Task: structure prediction
Amino acid sequence: MLSRWELAYGVIGWTAGMTLATFVVAIPARAQSNRGDYLFFVGSGFLCQTDDSSACPAVAKSADDSTFELSGAGTFNAKSKSVTAVGTFTHKSPNGSTLETGIWMTNELVSFESYGVARDVLMREGWAFGPSEFGPRRMPMLLGSVPAGGLAVLRIRLLPMWGPSRNAVLQVNCALGKVPDEHPTDGIRLTLEGGGEFDQEPSGRTMFVFTRPGASPAPKSPATGDQTNPPSAQAQQ
Result:
């Protein structure tokens, strides 16, 4: 018989997988329709395709060594402060025991400080998204998208498998571009509403991807037998 935690992880994994799969499909369309949007990734996706096991998930730690492990992705507009994001979390005690696990989501961007784009960082042809247990997924490359650094502050909702939901403030820092001295590395910080400060950043990769104004969707392959030349970039505008 499955234990309580095995069952919890199974349900959380299935729910998060379905949520993330739906969400990932919506990200490229939104980024292409709202010029100047940012995509962002927290301990997930192509960030995990490295030999560095500390890249995923992103971890925030408190003074007593309790931790929150987060993975997820979203999109936001820095000007309008509109945001949509979703992911998973695991709260662990100082000895590593799992206290709770669940899903987090947000629709409130408190602030965003841009460090500028990082043109020297090469983006891959396609992005695999989601923890390995959800299976690999590919996302089409957005033309005109560039990696960028910055500090995003989000108000999020934690929805655990058991127990009441609660609010928290999540800081996501990506150390690309002109990085300030006080935020030299990638990482996350979490402040729980009602008490609980996880302000240490022991591990985890993050990234913002800026969709530059004027970026257009990836071109579709012409139909068989279609000899018409594709329109120029100037004609598309």
